Amino acid sequence: MKILAFDTSTELCSAALWLDGELIEREEMAGNRHSELLLPMIQYLLAEAGLALPELDGLAFGKGPGSFTGLRIGCGVAQGLAFAADLPVHGVTTLAAMAQETMATSVLSCIDARMHEVYVAAYRRQGDALEEVVAPRVLPPERVDLPDAGGWTGVGTGFSAYPALLHGRLIAVDPLVHPRARAIAHLARPVLVAGGGVPAESAEPFYVRDKVALKTVER
Description:
about 25% helix; alpha/beta; 5-stranded mixed beta sheet; about 220 residues
């Protein structure tokens, strides 16, 4: 199974190739330069692997939540490449990709959503799989709570944006965890192996929130 995966949902731009169990990847803190960086990253990885795009078995991308612009870039690239090479696509939730990045058993993934809110979801590791305990949602930080009294690890930029978030109620916090292409490839692999990808025209971002900015009165 050969899978190209990438993510542009946060300030980190990353791409990875899953090659029958081997992984090669590139990533860079992009700011707002995802559109400049992503395609060259992909071209570099394909050249390093000696592969042409049609030789892949599928594509995977971080579908969100995250930056609206970043999600549109990632989804647009996934659609374009999938159309060009007639490949199936699978969108992976970015908060799940963050949980995959840590070996903790119970993970609360949290991304700063701006506008005084965070994107948050909870996951438990079941062997090599992740169980979604609380589905992705957008909330003011003061409304974020734990699903139960188990030992939860918090990851993501929501904890650096709001240092008091669930203070003293988590066994560990790592605000530096981002969604990464390698985690997206890992989570997408069983879906694509089982034929669960969708055609290019069916790939779409997962915004969670449909509001881009606050009105003047809300600020």
